Amino acid sequence: MKILANDGISKSGIALLENAGFEVITTKVAQEQVANFINNNQIAVLLVRSATKVRKELIDACPSLKIIGRGGVGMDNIDVDYAISKDIQVINTPASSSNSVAELVFAHLFSGVRFLNDSNRNMPLEGDTKFDQLKKAYANGIELRGKTLGIIGFGRIGQAVAKMALGLGMKVIASDTFVGKATITLEFYNHQSIVLEIETEPMEDLLKHSDFITLHVPAQKEGYVIGKNEFDVMKDGVGIVNCSRGGVIDEVALIEALDRKKVFFAGLDVFENEPTPAVQVLMHPQVSLSPHIGAATVEAQDRIGTELAEQIISLLQH
Ligand code: NAD
């Protein structure tokens, strides 16, 4: 049986699948050629990340497909219900990237409180005399320890972020439309652990009391999670991180809030316009950007490949 991994798959995933007798093709086929390629090669499993779109038309054009697999969490690029209605199984790897995304949140938070994105752009060249001036400009950094982190969306990634925040000595407030409370286990290198229960709170309280706010919600069917009204309720000088989905923050309201210093900095891995962020976002000195790389670590990609392979083997060989 043939598998097309159109957006790539880890070596560990390929090895598991090949050992189980599957042929794995990792050629990157252009979106408009995918249907032809699948039909010409009688592909049974199509694996994608976020780049390849698997819409109704593609599903209709490919009767050989038995499984569509998404390496990662968000299924917005796949017409899931339609595929299921055509007896195609749709799988993803929800837990494999949580730790990597959570670490990227802290990369943005630490960068924000110590001005790293801006200082990188402004370091002096040899002979430049502005060093003292720069030192002064970047001298008012703050610590994360002791501050309050508001986590909007308290699912897998939100809870992974909470663990790291607690480890740093931060206070955590979480808000979720569905989750009422979660048990967080902090595990230490010496195998000791501490178990804490965190109850979620109303969004309004989170917005009012957080020094930093991070979003971990799925793409919303309608409306922004954070728009002008929400910014107005927040503390002055709050820091915002979004490593979830573009479109959950109103970027026009964000830029306005940054300009009036309501928001002190924003760290964004995802944007309303992907892959190219709006120029106002791109050029803002208080915004630190990363190109949707939350899950792009060696460890997460390894777990994603392995998890996909195990599911395929279990579905097609039992
Ligand atoms: P999850 O389903 O475990 O958790 C999401 C939580 O958000 C749920 O508990 C849900 O009840 C809650 N929620 C939904 N709408 C809400 C709202 N309006 N207000 C408050 N809570 C709300 O998902 P997860 O695995 O934690 O992933 C979270 C997000 O991270 C997803 O959008 C996913 O696509 C994204 N993600 C991004 C990257 C990246 O590369 N940056 C990688 C992986 C996942």
Please describe the topology of this protein.
Blueprint: E1 2-5, H1 11-19, E2 23-25, H2 34-41, E3 43-48, H3 56-61, E4 67-70, H4 80-85, E5 89-92, H5 98-113, H6 116-122, H7 131-137, E6 148-152, H8 156-167, E7 171-175, E8 181-187, E9 193-199, H9 203-209, E10 212-215, H10 228-233, E11 238-242, H11 251-259, E12 263-268, H12 279-283, E13 287-289, H13 298-317
Parallel strand pairs: 1-2, 1-3, 3-4, 4-5, 6-7, 6-10, 10-11, 11-12, 12-13
Antiparallel strand pairs: 8-9
Helix pairs in contact: 1-13, 5-8
Task: Characterise the protein shown here.
- The protein has 13 helices and 13 strands.
- The protein is an alpha/beta fold and 318 residues long.
- It has a six-stranded parallel β-sheet with strand order 7-6-10-11-12-13, with helices on both faces. It has a five-stranded parallel β-sheet with strand order 2-1-3-4-5, sandwiched between helices.
- Helix 1 packs parallel to helix 13 and helix 5 packs across helix 8 (156-167).
- The model has no long low-confidence stretch (mean pLDDT 95).
- The structure holds nicotinamide-adenine-dinucleotide.
- Residues 72-74, 94, 97-98, 101, 152-158, 175-179, 216-218, 220, 225, 243-245, 269-270, 292, 294-295 line the site of nicotinamide-adenine-dinucleotide.
